[in-house]
């Protein structure tokens, strides 16, 4: 975050993406429903895909949104956070036409709205990406196995079991996917670094759970890919190696 | 002690009218430390017999015993263990894994055999075979003789009872071929391993304790065999006979006989096997 942590009179705090898209910085002025406000701060993580957020004084917000048919929410900071539920219930009862929520509840609802709107799309893209990856790795491993079919036959002739050959293929697939994973993460880092600069609306965030999911999917992809040539390997007749 | 025992072994490929009997009613016993050479024309069933002896191919009829254990009816899941523990294979075209070094080629066989110190064992065997300085070379960087020695090391690394060699000198020049032949002799006589060789190479006859002639899937008497004076092939005293100066000459084909007749003085002698 840059600038002020909370807005004063005639001030607004906007999110970084909004600021970038409109080429704004602290000290610049913007017009919100005929009211001119000065940007006093810029937040890092308030933009959610197509939604931008601004923070202003309650009195300012009341004035701006009065007589407008729009839905707003007001963040209330309590001196004693442990009283959140009690106060939310009281606000609900005492003020008509509003709904009061605790932080977690509000965050959950907000999250669900985003999830319900965008997650199916992202999920479909992820599934397509996973399947494409599995097919590419599977075909690569299959082709590589076919190229070395005689060598697998040699191993089988000298005493390798189908299970041992499968683990050799699996190890190859893991190496293949492992190298791909490292290259992919590196490329992602480069692409997102460039993309967030070029396209302000794109925000990239990494955390351990995302890495763990990617590693788990890569592992699954390797295992699935190893099954592609298994029938071919188990069908190798070791006697064929005697044919020169 | 009998290491390999084939009893009434028969192998038929195909069924009905297209059936081909590759090996027919074969009995063969190989003792510990013995070198047995099987010779015969192409298509006589030599490689099929070797595959059956090595537990790679199931016979249609008969029994195969290794160290007294009947392996004839063992499943595809059980046979790899038998091969790993008892049999070493040497192939005509070396069949080394191209992307692995000499050491790794031998190490992989030791690893399959459950050797916990596979790399050390592989290096030891390769050193004994004179490849100490070639451990980290890829097969492409090795000569034919060196490749075959790596293959021999791979065959020996799990200390098998019997080594089966399919045309081990076929892709080698005479010097390297001789080297390999001597190596096979060493395996049998110094390490007391049985060696069963299938080959056309007459040089191997010198080291063999027994030479068997396989033709049309059956062993034949060697007394009836002679060498074609033109091409040097071992053949049966049967077709393409030519009498010259009271001496009988036999040929593998009309071509060789014609060649001989045209240059008789060039081929003064022939010998029986």
Report the span from N to C terminus of chain A.
Answer: 72 Å
Spatially, the strands of the biggest sheet of chain B line up as 6-7-8-3-9-10
Biggest beta sheet summary of chain A? 5 strands, mixed
Helix content of chain A: 55-70%
The quaternary structure here is heterodimer
How many separate helices of chain A? Answer: 8
Secondary-structure class of chain A: alpha+beta
Feature tags:
heterodimer, A: 244 residues, alpha+beta, 2 domains, five-stranded mixed sheet, 9% strand, B: 273 residues, alpha/beta, Rossmann fold, six-stranded mixed sheet, four-stranded antiparallel sheet
Write the topology of this structure.
The complex is a heterodimer of chains A (244) and B (273).
Chain A: E1 2-3, E2 11-15, H1 16-21, E3 29-32, E4 35-43, E5 54-55, H2 58-65, H3 84-94, H4 103-147, H5 149-158, H6 162-198, H7 208-227, H8 230-234
Helix pairs in contact in A: 4-6, 4-7, 6-7
Chain B: E1 2-13, E2 20-31, E3 35-39, H1 46-53, E4 61-66, E5 69-70, H2 79-86, E6 87-90, H3 102-112, H4 118-128, H5 144-156, E7 162-166, H6 174-189, E8 194-198, E9 210-215, E10 218-220, E11 225-227, E12 234-236, E13 241-244, E14 247-250, H7 254-262
Describe the structure.
The complex is a heterodimer of chains A (244) and B (273). In chain A, strands 1, 2, 3, 4 and 5 form a 5-stranded mixed beta sheet that branches. Chain A is α+β, with helices and mostly antiparallel strands and 244 residues long. Chain A is 58% helix and 9% strand. Chain A has 2 domains: 2-75, no CATH class; 112-242, no CATH class. In chain A, β3 and β4 (35-43) form a beta hairpin. In chain B, 28% of the residues lie in helices and 27% in strands. Chain B has helices spanning 46-53, 79-86, 102-112, 118-128, 144-156, 174-189, 254-262, and strands at 2-13, 20-31, 35-39, 61-66, 69-70, 87-90, 162-166, 194-198, 210-215, 218-220, 225-227, 234-236, 241-244, 247-250. Chain B has a 6-stranded mixed beta sheet, sandwiched between helices. In chain B, strands 2-1-4-5 form a 4-stranded antiparallel beta sheet, covered by helices on one side. The longest helix of chain B is centred in the middle third of the chain and has 16 residues, at 174-189. Classes of the chains: A alpha+beta (244), B alpha/beta (273).
